[in-house]
Amino acid sequence: MINSNKNPRFWSGRYWRKHNISDALKEVVEPDVVDVSSIQMHDTLCPLIWGENEIIKPDVRKILLMNAKRFIEFSDVENLKFNDIILTGSMANYNYNENSDLDVHIVLDFSQISENTEFVGDFFKLKKSLWNDKLPIQVKGHDVEMYFQDSSEAHFATGTYSLVRNEWINKPTKKIVNIDTADVQLKAADFMNAIDDLETNQDEKDFVKRYETLKNKIKKYRQTGLEDKGEFSVENLVFKVLRNTGYLEKMVEIKNDYLTQELSLNEFEL
Hints:
Blueprint lengths: L12 H4 L4 H4 L33 H17 L9 E5 L13 E7 L8 H18 L3 E2 L2 E9 L9 E3 L4 E4 L10 H20 L6 H23 L4 H11 L2 H16 L8
Parallel strand pairs: 2-4
Antiparallel strand pairs: 1-2, 1-5, 3-4, 5-6
């Protein structure tokens, strides 16, 4: 992630409350200022979450299952049947950091709701966004990220823990990972500048097309990396840098600002 103390492009509320955004937008993100120090392997799983024999701490398991129960109720889907509730991502691995989310996935068959599983996925994503907006929940200082996962969806995480059965599905292994940090910095800076360019060119007629093209490019870029080399691929690490620095959130805010202006009419205009 970008170091907020050194680089004015760090996209956080704390920074921008004290600085002028228009001045910062005149700058360009250079690869060498993209801080990738958070990409590292630890000797142990996060001690806040995991106890003896690398089994999740009882209080953490209990509160995460409670979150999942409430999230299922929030979906407003009657008689929803799920296969499992899992903890995955970096907090179920050795590559966690202070910004890592607790990724809780409710695994179920989307087709039990509708044959149009793409529509079901979009519905659940909307529910997820509403849930996060209403309830910014944290456990042991880490955000809880709830997600409905189709049981047919490919999942590439090397660490997966069943909260229902209280046991590992895929237990991560400590290993030496050679990360091309220079390449991560270079690719992350490219995407950051592309996202910034969206904001400075919101008045262009093809804005929505450019936004969708960039969003799909980032999504495909990450997916290709996961399928090829897994969660430690350059592509997935670039995605994590964009997420940790707030640039993915910034993309959404840019589009929302554009739509707000496009769909509004100034009452003072004659």
